[in-house]
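Record passed on underneath.
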Amino acid sequence: MFEDIKAIIRNDPASRGLEFLLYPGLHAIIIHRYISHPLYVIKLKFIARLISQIARFLTGLEIHPAAKIGKGFFCDHGMGVVIGSTTEIGDNGVLFQGVTLGGTGKHKGKRHPTIGNNVLIGAHATLLGPIKVGDNVKVGAETVIINHDVPSNSTIVGSPARIVKLNGKKVNLDLKKSKISS
């Protein structure tokens, strides 16, 4: 929990004093980390889902209790965020409002994205399928990524998604046609 509080202070310059206590993203991750996810792990799935739905009602963030989320998670203006059941998010993940980490309906087993460490996902971005997003990635607002991995150390924007920065250099690569591995 303390890493998540530090993430608020680190990522939001508007946070002052005890204001971190008012962030719905913090409420949602606390409920996920300490109630719904542990209940899901011990196979109390109905209760875990019930609690996650109550958290969704209270915070506007829908985090499936099976999702795995690393330390230092920050979700600013979290209304409309959806994090699917097989989603994995590394440490220091930053999500803004309206982000969807979902499935396509075409996969079985692992159906949702795996997000690396130090990844920022902008408002209303949509990442679908069992994709891998590398470390140190920035995904622009309203970017759509479906069934394509994203390389580490990159910035991705648009729909269709394009790599506009890779390893500190400006580029212009169609993510769909890119052969770069994450």
Remarks:
- The mean pLDDT is 95.
- The two ends are 29 Å apart (CA to CA).
- The chain is about 25% helix and 25% strand.
